[in-house]
Amino acid sequence: MDDYDIVVVGGGPIGCFAAQQLASKGISVAVVEEHKTIGVPLHCAGLVTKRVFDITGCSYSGIVQNKIYGAHIHSPDGTTLTIGGEKLHALVIDRQRFDQTLAEAAQAAGTDLFVGRKVVSGKKQDDTVVLFMDDDEHTSTARCRLVIGADGSRSRIQHVFGFPRPTEILHGVGAELSDTTLDPRFVHIFVGQAVAPGFFAWIIPTDPQGSTARIGLCVGKHHSLSLQQYVTSLLGHPLVRGSTVMKRSGGAIPLGPLKKTVGDHVMLVGDAAAQVKPTSGGGLYPGLLCAQQCFNVAVDAIQKQHYTESALKPYHLSWTKEIGRELSLGLRFRTLFLGLSDAQFNKYIKKLNNDKTIRAINNYGDIDYPSRLALPLLRTAPSLLSLATTVLKRTKP
Questions:
Q1: Distances, alpha carbon 306 to alpha carbons 150, 207, 263, in Å
Q2: What are the angstrom distances between the C-alpha of 140 and each of 137, 159, 208, 306?
Q3: Residue pLDDT, tens place only, 136-179
Q4: How many beta carbons lie within 10 A of that of residue 288, not counting itself?
Q5: CATH of 3-43+96-167+255-325, one of 2.60.40.10, 3.40.50.150, 3.30.1130.10, 3.50.50.60
């Protein structure tokens, strides 16, 4: 590989979007991706809002598979809370095609893309960074002034350059199904210790006919069964029983954004920086927002030829200002969630199941900004405040 101004490690959507923006400014950029095919393997439920398309400028065509208008939330005792139904809340996307579209845009802007190369180590040398990579046959190196680590939840850049770890790592598993008979307008969410302890499970219809679906779940650190046992149980649910499993997937989700995301000659973005919504595990929207901030500071660093931690720190400050409060509140909501027993899930889902509360959820609910629902929800269901106080006291370190 040649020398570059910037090497982006990780060819996912966050890394390729950042690379495309940088290359469009005439900066020499390379993207290094450890897998041989962009977008494979799949690590995402593929449920996003239109904001993702607003940021990237991608066309819906060939990427959007279905449109979601509401959700059925299932409690452990089988009670169902139905929200939404009138307006568009989310889009189901083909994540592989989305990732490939952003990779193609990065290349069209002038980015060099290298696949099948895994970064194994790196070192700072003479005001540059040298990265050492392995492929199937040999070891190669790349030299650059700035490294952007966009290499996911198991970030090698995060590890090699001594960044802190996220607060928590969730582990998940999923499957693509055919031969389903679902209402295509609604996703299904399942909570409870028997289904997905420490998080939740989902069924997402992936076509306008409801004949295909994407299912999955994540678990926290305390669980009694294997991931495969949980997904087998989910496949036995009446909603998808008898469907055909086309492919399976798995992955990890980091929660708790890093307190430090820059160092000398190095920046982290996306899952590598744990810029992930703690309430849903979604990382595309916050990662893309942060990639914009990363781009701005990286361009300034290249122009001024200043790559020290202090020169790059405005990136950390800007993304924290942009979405840090939302992610922090999400961690508080997660603390509440983790403190709930199955009996409490049953109790409070029943309490929420009234016209006034559902109307508040429908009007203010936003999967990118769940905190916007907090005050309207408390006004319609004040008992939630006592629940929050009780749970926070019980879970206080």
A1: 21, 49, 12
A2: 10, 20, 46, 27
A3: 788 899 999 999 999 999 999 999 999 999 999 999 999 999 99
A4: 23
A5: 3.50.50.60
